[in-house]
Design a protein that fits this description.
Elements: E1 15-28, E2 34-48, E3 53-57, H1 64-71, E4 79-84, E5 87-88, H2 94-100, E6 104-107, H3 121-132, H4 137-150, H5 167-179, E7 185-189, H6 197-214, E8 217-222, H7 225-231, E9 234-239, E10 242-248, H8 249-254, H9 259-266, H10 307-311, E11 317-320, E12 323-325, H11 343-363
Helix pairs in contact: 3-4, 5-6
Length: 364
């Protein structure tokens, strides 16, 4: 069955986002008489290739989840373009948009709230097959069993309701539902933040295995830099609706340029007693988006801010190695020593995690 989108041109990005903008009108004052426009997403642009992961990180309220919902047109952008396999999703009519949803799916943060508690798992997984395929009833049942197997659940789970599963199992069901129509792109909005740490590792490993098997692309939204380090090929650090720094994840982790990125990475706990942190901790709270600071929106918390930062908003500029930075004075900052996690530490953590999972499987 046609999804309304043809195959991508060879060599072209799977997803192209340009100057994406969204503002919300908020009522203020007594009886809500005054109205204010809040720019939740302000000129976001990025590309994503098939089989790769683009991660967006930042503090709560920075606009990450709004970007996720804009990509699927769950809320409508004010401006900008979203091109999937060369087709502008904003130009699709309602019928075409519905068909295109077979190619782009979403996994939400709350694995219970995103599942319908009134229908059995088999019906839930068959629903996208009814919408996006012409499979016969018998073939749909086989596909439901296949989806459950892909996410590590038994076929008999199809007869149960969502409340009969644990949190980690419910997130597996949400992933299975996203896979049902064979998408090219899955938007993961904080998919492991509601789970225990050991379960987080299992879900992340599952996402990585599915990505390799089906050449899936992920837009991965998270506030957890340790999770992002494991998943991301490319990374964007977001602050008050704009990207502060973006580029290959490994290069940003190894050598962060923007003061905000440096502060976030220096705050990541690392089990290394010899590690030293040179970057000052972030002070204060994120400014209210109802009244954002003039100039660079980060200057009220930046230990390196100068007069120009209060007056002029910096744009993203090329910093080499594929990295772009929105900071007037990034070239003059001292090296960010001690921010990146060492390779040896990564290997130690991987061994500890593997040992924990082996112990859990043998004792269960």
């Amino acid at each position: 069955m046609s999804t309304g989108l043809s195959s991508a041109n060879p060599g072209a990005p799977l997803l192209e986002v340009r100057d994406l903008t969204r503002a919300f009108t908020v009522a203020q004052g007594l009886f809500g008489r005054s109205l204010t426009r809040v720019r939740a997403v302000d000129g976001v642009s990025f590309n994503l290739d098939a089989g790769c992961t683009f991660a967006i990180v930042g503090e709560s309220g920075c606009g990450k989840s709004t970007v996720a919902r804009l990509l699927l047109r769950l809320i409508e952008p004010d401006d900008g373009s979203i091109r999937l396999e060369g087709h502008d999703l904003r130009a699709l009519d309602p019928a075409e948009l519905r068909r295109s949803r077979a190619r782009i799916q979403m996994v939400f943060q709350d694995p219970y709230g995103s599942l319908n508690p009134r229908i059995r798992v088999g019906e839930m997984l068959a629903e996208p097959l009814l919408l996006h395929t012409d499979l016969a009833p018998g073939a749909r049942r086989e596909r439901v069993s296949e989806l459950l197997s892909l996410v590590g659940l038994p076929a008999e789970a199809a007869a149960r309701y969502p409340h009969e599963f644990s949190g980690g199992q419910r997130q597996r069901l949400a992933i299975a539902r996203a896979l049902a129509a064979s998408p090219r792109l899955i938007v993961c909005d904080e998919p492991v933040s509601a789970l225990d740490v050991s379960i987080q590792a299992q879900i992340l490993n599952l996402l990585a295995e599915l990505q390799e098997r089906f050449n899936l692309a992920y837009v991965f939204i998270s506030h957890d830099l340790a999770v992002v380090r494991q998943m991301a090929d490319r990374l964007a650090v977001m602050y008050l609706g704009r990207f502060a720094e973006t580029g290959p994840a490994g290069r940003i982790f190894a050598s962060p340029r923007h003061p905000y990125t440096r502060a976030l990475l220096s705050a990541v706990p690392v089990p290394d007693p010899d590690r030293t942190v040179s970057e000052p901790a972030l002070g204060g709270d994120v400014p209210s988006p109802l009244n954002p600071p003039s100039g660079c929106s980060f200057h009220t918390r930046c230990p390196h801010a100068r007069e120009r930062c209060t007056a002029e908003q910096p744009a993203l500029e090329d910093a080499g190695d594929g990295v772009q930075v929105a900071c007037w004075f990034w070239r003059e900052l001292p090296p960010a020593a001690g921010v990146a996690v060492s390779v040896s530490t990564d290997k130690t953590l991987s061994r500890l995690q593997a040992a924990f999972l082996r112990h859990s499987s043998t004792s269960s």
